[in-house]
Design brief:
With 255 residues, the protein is mainly alpha-helical. It is built from 10 helices and 2 strands. The chain has a two-stranded parallel ribbon with strand order 1-2.
């Protein structure tokens, strides 16, 4: 295809992806009420725990259009998930003609592994977030009121979910680097001390210092995923070395 034909193809697939996103956003906009009710449940629990006559924790909209803006932002995020099969397929259909059969197979495997890991990380983030909010709110002095600005609160929840979700996908990229021959499984395993330190630091930054349980839970899961990726890469290396030996391209001393 010529450059002009590629640009036309990209524009066509982009339009289809945008239409899918808009439809997903419209559907998601309808269900924003239960989503807002769910993500603000820690605020209501905090308020009930104090049991004071005056509210302790309140979810606040600070502007005229704040409530609409919040619903629009939630609709966009959920719409991206709802329309994922459409825009992912458009991206895949655009790049697939330029890939070899082997690259297509590897890409499908990695995507199929990355998607559940990302949603698994998002689920862990949703479970941990209430503990984070509860711990941070415990520092509010007696008589104080904790006002949660709607925009800032949603930004915190959304970024927290995205960061933890991406962290869960990193082992897939490690295996991808191993498959590409950039790093071996043994090299990954030898770096376990650094991986443990990085996982602990990441968990400490992602969660409040006072919430030890959430930090240990997150760090523990990341460390397990790192070791799983290392062992899987070692298995791939072993199979690859056996194949090269059988073809006479690798000697025992080269392993």
């Amino acid at each position: 295809m010529s450059l002009g034909a590629h640009l036309k193809e990209a524009r066509r697939r982009l339009i289809i992806a945008v239409i899918g996103l808009v439809v997903g956003m419209v559907i998601a906009f309808i269900v924003t009420d239960p989503i807002i009710w769910y993500i603000t449940s820690p605020i209501r629990i905090l308020d009930e725990q104090r049991g004071t006559e005056t509210p302790f924790a309140q979810f606040v909209f600070s502007g005229v259009s704040s409530a609409f803006d919040l619903r629009l932002r939630i609709a966009f995020a959920i719409g991206m998930v709802f329309s994922a099969p459409i825009w992912l397929w458009q991206i895949w259909a655009f790049i697939m003609p330029g890939l070899t059969r082997k690259e297509i197979k590897y890409t499908i495997v990695f995507v199929c592994a990355a998607i559940p890991l990302f949603f698994g990380g998002a689920y862990v983030a949703v479970m941990v977030a209430p503990h984070v909010i509860e711990v941070m709110s415990s520092f509010v002095p007696e008589g104080g009121v904790n006002y949660f600005n709607a925009k800032e609160y949603y930004d915190f929840i959304f970024k927290f979910i995205i960061v933890i979700g991406i962290a869960f996908v990193l082992p897939v990229f490690m295996v991808a680097l191993n498959t590409a021959g950039i790093i071996t499984g043994k090299a990954m395993l030898k770096g376990w001390r650094v991986a443990v330190l990085v996982s602990a630091l990441f968990a400490a930054v992602a969660t409040p210092a006072a919430d030890i349980f959430s930090m240990l839970l997150l760090a523990g899961i990341l460390i397990v995923l790192y070791f799983a990726a290392s062992l899987l890469s070692m298995l791939f290396d072993r199979r690859k070395n056996k194949r090269l030996k059988a073809e006479g391209l690798l000697l025992d001393g080269d392993v």
